[in-house]
Amino acid sequence: GRSWRVKESEEEAADVCSSKMAGAVVELGEYIVRESHNPENLHAVELADEMNNILTAMKLACKVINREISKANTYGVDTTRSGLAEDMPSLANRRFLDAMVNREVVAGIATAFLDDFVAIPNCKNKGLVLLIHPLDGSRQIDLNVSVGTLFSIYKRVTKKGDPVELRDFLQPGCNQVCAGYVIYGSSTMMVFTMGKGVTGFTLDPSLGTLYLSHPRVKIPQDGKIYSVNGGKRRRFPKGVTEYIDYCQDRAFSLRYIGSPIADFHRNLLKGGIYIYPPTFVDPKPSVSMVFQCNPLSFLVEQAGGKASDGFTRILDIEPTALHDRIPFICGSPLMVEKAEGFMARKKMADGGWCFSRQPAVNGKK
């Protein structure tokens, strides 16, 4: 009887210890160091130091951007008249470039606001490249709507010691070793994956530190929220309009902010689907494959969700240019599969117009 009680008390002590560790406050830097040496994370051990340095530089740049955004509508400044909303993307772009170039942490960087990639001087021996959308949803800043930063990290395909090339940046999304976003809203959060689950950190503005707030993020398997620009419904493919009818018949909630990161973040936590389809007027949507779809697809899959262009898994598609655009459907897996079902059945209902490389004219090829 005594040995049983001793064993029971030891188990209780272990439970208490583990719960304390689970409840410990973990800072982003600590987490990066620990997880970058975790063999379960893709390529993490091999590139641990470089990964740590890149994410540390990202953290610094994001805190600077957060400060600038928070000042945008203060002191009676009219951002529309002052032009601040237009200037903010270039400011964010410069801040991220400065952080990466000055710290010499990555072989090369490509951003959504530059036509070509930038090779970082003195970094030919680095093994990673960075792709970043410095300020996604920037048109919403003067309206005080949540905006964000998206990033992807890839292992370069060219040999270390050689200059980086365009093919280092034009890899399918399944080759990402790390991806994430920072959302600047009522609070500032960094959400990212290193290939083994999704984790979120929230900024404590009084200390300027990002603390672990959302360990092991999982998207619900199903949801009742759909996010799509309903104003363009008449121009959508037949499969998309019928899926919207399906959602409305079941009284699903339409939630569309117009800031992709904000819509994605809500659906990631609450469950839902985000749809950015082609239209008759523009068969190529404005959403970027490399800078938006790939990091969000990697994140949603690591959280248990799905992402596709309506027919093909996003992460399997190889880009041909930095600024390729593509239809985008992502979110809770059961909702994405249902939408794909409608798309498959109605693929030829519009004459296959949205899958042709020829431009559409008045809704016809």
In short:
This protein is of the alpha+beta class and 365 residues long. Helix content is 36%, strand content 19%.
Structure characterization notes:
The protein has 365 residues and is α+β, with helices and mostly antiparallel strands. It has helices at residues 2-22, 28-36, 48-70, 79-82, 84-103, 166-169, 238-249, 260-270, 289-302, 333-345; strands spanning 108-111, 118-119, 128-136, 147-155, 176-184, 188-193, 198-204, 209-217, 225-227, 253-254, 273-276, 306-308, 328-331. It has an 8-stranded mixed beta sheet, sandwiched between helices. It has a 5-stranded mixed beta sheet with strand order 10-9-11-13-12, sandwiched between helices. A hairpin with a 6-residue loop joins β1 and β2. The termini are far apart.
